[in-house]
Specification:
- With 363 residues, the chain is mostly helical.
- It has 18 helices and no strands.
- The longest helix is centred in the middle third of the chain and has 30 residues.
């Protein structure tokens, strides 16, 4: 039976397989949305902030004072654009379906990445299905969070890199990479340094294959130049609005103080962060008395002062944060086993079975 399946899969075109992968992924995410009352769910916390910013942009434009440079702009702008086509009653449903549609293309990217890396077609197909069934990607796909856009752009970047290695026309791919890198940075500011990691990767690649350095520097310059050009409109807008050159966002002070407001707290020692009363009090003070730039500097100074006073606690806290980040559990802070943990355990078993089945006796 398996041999028949694998024989037939070689006869199916890549387009048809891509449509099948997309359909499976979309249906998984959409039915999960329906079965968890996702159509009626009210956005909270970060999702609410992005939605409200999008509504503010739609009503008052990008120059609205309410739209500070404290949030990555891409998701709010997408939200604002969607208000042109959907009513207030349907906008949330529409946005969630749009995000599901967008993220359902991610497994297709990995299918073609596998093919570009000369991986067998049946293994490329199974890889895409493993990505499609990854539980957190199903769970978060309908949330109004920048992680969804970031995941999409990262998959596209990996796809372009897989094409770059064998492509004869590298300049066009490099320019496209610069554009997608800009979109990724505008969706999640943390990725602003990712192009420099790619440069490091390209350096190793060009050195290993003895490619002429003239071509290497040309590609590096093209990547950085296109990246800067595509980021420039947003940076200039921030300069006009805030009289300060802000490449994407300026949440450094907020994030530093959020994660380091009280290093003696039990939860923080375990690698978490908390919005303690101390944090809320100082944040409210900053927002009531300072402008945006001064607020960030004020909170940064508070964070550095806390670190200075309790510097001996920082190494273990950073280690615990790393452990939590790499933990397979969806929420590593829970003390007891949850339903989400059981789902992840099932997926890990599914992944292990996939690896064993794929490589068989070679393991």
């Amino acid at each position: 039976m398996n041999n028949i399946f694998y024989t037939n899969i070689y006869k199916i075109s890549n387009i048809k397989l891509s449509l099948f992968i997309f359909s499976v992924t979309f249906l998984l995410k959409y039915f999960y949305l329906l079965n968890t009352n996702g159509l009626e769910r009210i956005p909270i916390q970060d999702a609410a902030a992005y939605f409200n910013l999008g509504k503010e942009i739609y009503e008052n434009g990008l120059f609205t004072k309410e739209f500070l440079a404290g949030r990555p702009p891409l998701l709010p702008i997408l939200t604002a654009f969607s208000f042109n086509f959907f009513s207030n009653e349907n906008i949330l449903i529409a946005l969630r379906v749009i995000l599901i549609l967008m993220t359902s293309t991610i497994p297709i990217s990995f299918y073609y990445i596998s093919l570009n890396l000369k991986i067998d077609k049946k293994f490329a197909f199974l890889t895409a299905l493993v990505i499609a069934f990854y539980p957190p990607s199903i769970y978060y796909s309908s949330f109004l969070l920048t992680e969804n856009l970031a995941s999409l752009f990262v998959s596209i970047i990996l796809l372009l890199i897989s094409k770059l290695i064998k492509s004869e026309n590298k300049i066009k791919i490099i320019i496209l990479l610069g554009f997608v890198f800009a979109l990724l940075t505008l969706s999640r500011s943390i990725f602003i340094l990712l192009p420099f990691f790619l440069i490091f990767f390209l350096s190793i690649y060009f050195y290993y294959f003895r490619i002429k350095y003239k071509n290497f520097f040309k590609l590096i310059f093209t990547l950085l130049f296109s990246y800067v050009i595509f980021l420039m409109p947003w940076s200039l807008l921030n300069k006009i609005k805030h009289d300060e050159l802000i490449i994407t966002t300026n949440r450094l002070g907020y994030m530093l103080y959020l994660t380091n407001s009280d290093l003696t707290d039990k939860n923080v020692k375990e690698g978490q962060y908390i919005k303690s009363e101390k944090f809320k009090k100082n944040l409210n003070h900053a927002r009531q008395n300072f402008d945006y730039k001064t607020e960030s500097n004020y909170l940064s100074n508070l964070a550095f002062e806390e670190i200075k006073q309790n510097y001996e606690l920082l190494p273990s806290i950073l280690f615990n944060r790393l452990v939590n980040t790499l933990n397979f559990r969806p929420n590593p802070y829970k003390s007891s086993i949850t339903t989400n943990d059981l789902v992840m355990i099932f997926w890990v078993f599914f992944l292990a079975s996939f690896i064993k089945y794929t490589f068989g006796r070679n393991l």
